Amino acid sequence: MADESAARLRMAARAVARAGLVHAYGHCSLRIDAHRFMVTPAKALGLISPLDEPVLVSTEGPLPQGALPEVLAHQGIFRARSEVGGIVRFQSPQLTALSTLGLTPRARHGFGAYFAPAPPLHEDPRLMREPANAAALVGKLGAARAIVMRGNGAICVGHTLEEAVVMAWYLEDAARVELAVLATGRDGVELTPQEAADRAVTSGRVVERMWEWLTAGDPESKDAAQRDGGVALRAQGVSYR
Q1: Full set of structural domains in the chain with CATH
Q2: pTM of the predicted model, to two decimals?
Q3: How far apart are CA 124 and CA 107, in angstroms?
Q4: What confidence tens digit (pLDDT) does each residue in 109-121 have?
Q5: DSSP state, 109?
Q6: What CA–CA distance (Å, rounded) separates 35 from 173?
Q7: What is the pLDDT of residues 156-177, one digit of tens each?
Q8: What share of the chain is helix, strand, coil (3-state, %, to 5)?
Q9: Element (H, E) at 75
């Protein structure tokens, strides 16, 4: 189980990097149980290999060696919200640009519906390396799926790590739409509360399909394992249909 969880975490890291949501900075974390979670090592997410081991962190107490100072925010979120199973911290370009206007994406299209009416904005642009700043961010996040940090990216949470990754992609796309609407000089139309509630569904493999798309070709994905297994069988002269 630990090996499977570590592989999921590495896949998530590479997925957000491949989607252009991070560069050299950012981190993902995955809850293990009520008191522990694992977080990606202090390394650019796109450079994380199948050999890299996550850092194990307790939801209480000081951070262990190897955990970045900003993991304080992950620790606080896991401690405050028992339903959260995964967290993604990222700095995507459209969302970061929008945040410098003091704005977060409004619920204008399907992907934006998941954050209706709009995700909260954490006004402090400094890195979350102090307990007080991390605690303020956790409080501002509340029960939302995401929080945007002014000039400093965002954090998305999910019931699973896969959902958190998908929400990160959705939030960046919502920022793209918001900036496009602002560029027209018109107000645009927002989804009504009922429309947003009806649209923000996770049934019908909504999360799973996006996760599969974001991780397609990953060296630790199931399709890669099946492909590599097929290559090995063919090398042994075994054919199958």
Answers
A1: 2-235 (3.40.225.10)
A2: 0.91
A3: 23
A4: 999 999 999 999 9
A5: S
A6: 33
A7: 999 999 999 999 999 999 999 9
A8: 45, 15, 40
A9: helix 71-80
